[in-house]
């Protein structure tokens, strides 16, 4: 087994890409939103990447599955926060759609992991 197998997974790479996009979007937020909502989005998107990595290091499928479920929850949390930003016009439709498409991909890939682990 590869020691750091997650580094080669598309879901991990897509999650890193999303993280980079989110960090750039949060920097553009007005200061009054950057701390509360911006910080929450950053924590949620970090949670996706970090739970994939941490779960990959677990020795049982049951343990790994728990981390995949946490990552999926963070996918939903990230999308909800972005939806709020879009509704309040702090995010353009194009920015939202780019993130939505990546979140959809990540969610599908994590769902595939869950099926494989069962």
Automatic annotation (TrEMBL):
Record-linked InterPro entries: 23S_rRNA-intervening_sequence, 23S_rRNA_IVS_sf
Supply the SUPFAM superfamilies for this chain.
IVS-encoded protein-like (SSF158446)
Q: Which Pfam families match?
A: 23S_rRNA_IVP
Q: What Gene3D superfamilies does the record point to?
A: 23S rRNA-intervening sequence
Superkingdom, according to UniProt?
Bacteria
Name recorded for this polypeptide: Four helix bundle protein
Q: Specify the species.
A: Candidatus Harrisonbacteria bacterium RIFCSPLOWO2_02_FULL_45_10c
